[in-house]
Request: fold
Amino acid sequence: MTNKVGEKLDKYMQNSRESLHEKASHGKKIFPYTVYHSRIPEWLGGFPLHWHEEFEIILVTYGRGLFTVNGKEFLANKDDIILIPSESIHAIERNQNDSVEYFNILFTFSLLEENSESLCSRRYFSKLEEESNFRNYFIRSGTALHQKIFEGVKDLVLHREQSYSGYELMIKSRLFEILYHINQENILENTEASGSELNQALATGKKNTERIKKILSYTAEHFAEKITIEDAAEICSVSESRFMGLFKEQTGMSYVQYLNNYRLEAAAEELSDSAKTKKTVTDIALQNGFENISYFIRAFRSKFGCTPKEYGKK
Reply:
């Protein structure tokens, strides 16, 4: 990708690798809204588990890919829509040998109403910011909710280049309409739990999410070092068995799977530059936390469909 969107996306990916708490600025400060265009594996290897403050709407436009939101994994096809509430842990990966093309629409609710004490902010946006209120993050093509929001989402994608040339009012009107339908059909009203019980459940859920974010951030900085389940559990201040269950619940995979996958992604990035750096496969494996070279080659082939050496040549 050589266009401006590609350059922004490359910076976004670099920031994601350095810090899984995405702090990159999306859009302009006076208009916090932007649309990214991505294609896996042609432009990107994938997005590792990360999170950010913006609400995100993803529209798949070609192929199919794996999308994980708060531990729930979805195999999305053309025209499917994925909703990602603020601060939700999510990832995007290739599905076997498939390609997937999609658009990410990111915005903050301050774009729609700056006053957090306003009626819409208190009654609706506060709910939409809580991932625990969502019945489903995956809006499959053909469903009732999809039929109501698809044209609005598609309109935002089609006119993404006009976002700062007189189209701001259209963008805001489409977002209001999309959020109205999401709120009407996708927010789960909890009628069984009392207010105190619900607040306690939300507090526990947030605490557990923060624990997982802590180990994800630690992993991003120390993945090349030896990290045991005991180490990870201690970082999260829980027992080993509790940690393993919690990590699986929040991310949809075991911590060992996540750590190995992260190391493989990091190794793949280095292999793509190996012609310049002159690093060997062994060097790259060891520098990314793999002590057993034979295991590294097998795991790499399983994930990318070729050996590390073949990947470097590509």
Remarks:
- The chain has twelve helices and nine strands.
- The mean pLDDT is 85.
- Strands lie at 21-22, 33-40, 47-52, 55-69, 72-77, 81-84, 90-94, 100-107, 138-139.
